[in-house]
Here is the input.
Amino acid sequence: MNTFARLRGVWRDRTPNILPPRHFRCLPRDLVAIAVSLPFMAVSANSLAAEAGGFASCLERLRPDAMAKGVSAATFDAQTAALAPDMTVIGFLDAQPEFVTPIWDYLAALVDEERVADGREMLSHWELVLGRVEKAYDVDRATVVAVWGVESNFGRNFGTRPLLTSLSTLSCFGRRQDYFRGEFFTTLKIIQEGHVAPERLTGSWAGAFGHTQFMPSTFMRLAVDFDGDGRRDLVDSVPDALASTANFLRRAGWRNDLPWGFEVALPAGFDTAVAGRRNRQPMHDWAARGLRRVDGGDLPPGATPAALLLPAGEGGPAFLVTRNFDALYSYNAAESYALAIAHLSDRLRGGGPFATPWPTDDAGLSRAERRELQQLLIERGFDIGEPDGIIGSRTREALQMVQREFGLTADGRAGQKTLRALRQPR
Ligand code: CA
Here is the structure.
């Protein structure tokens, strides 16, 4: 089962409607590698001028709509006076992932030792705030910190695109202009209400911003002022961000008396047709079918609804997941994403890696290993920029060349086999 194939589908989850379609959110930026269609990357001077003219008249048309949504004339005029469109965001809107990322690559980078160590440090540093957040929203601290770690690498990576530029462009060009106009007007209201200063509002191409990477509309519904300064600030207030994440999960149905789920062992000959996040069965039914915890222990007693997940199909790790997994899923509609958060939260609580290996003989790389691989490519003379751990097109092209040289499958994928080969002295 390829969870990533479904990422490109439209949003159709039954959990509360608090997020836009998945493809308007960004993958965690550590993993971003999508092809932006070339026409938007190489616009001519003529088309730029035409776009600028179209953009100015578009903003004029949007002005009364913005007023109707509660944006003042003063705010609109002040914040749009110097705006120019950024057509590269339209390329992202239409981009498809360059290739399918295997789940073991996705998790190797999102739940690596570095993020576990950073997360434990954050748990300790923000202990008092997290204790208060836990009490106020009844969402456990390891889960809140895991979301933070995956969304913005604990506040280190918010995205650098000015929200007003991206969202005004998406309001005037490309698909889904109505949706993005709502986000644009909401961004103006966030500024008007003084929550976040406009120059601090940078984020993903689609407008997700801050520690929690909320879209502006999600901010309006779910962000909270937890440090008591009267502003809901998801950019410069960690307490506001942690509490807002907990509030999101709470509203998405989180129940602190349940685990998100756990790894299970399937009995021999098990019919995996019953797998799927939406096929919830009482826990005792799964026990009756012969499922056990992966350490051999019995499943929890009772009728708690749970679903069986097989993220890599048969032969890989299997999980029973509860409604809490769905709450994580609603943060960013991908099962691989929810599993990364869930697994990171377990690791932060002291848990170990999954017991069942992924069905591959070429495991994925941590971010440290990705940087090492890039450094080794640079030492071989490849011009791939800084070793930042992000596997982009230049790194992949270089990988294909060395993979051919090594007699490995020349797919440009950064895996353990290629790293091991690169480590060999020449
Ligand atoms: Ca605040």
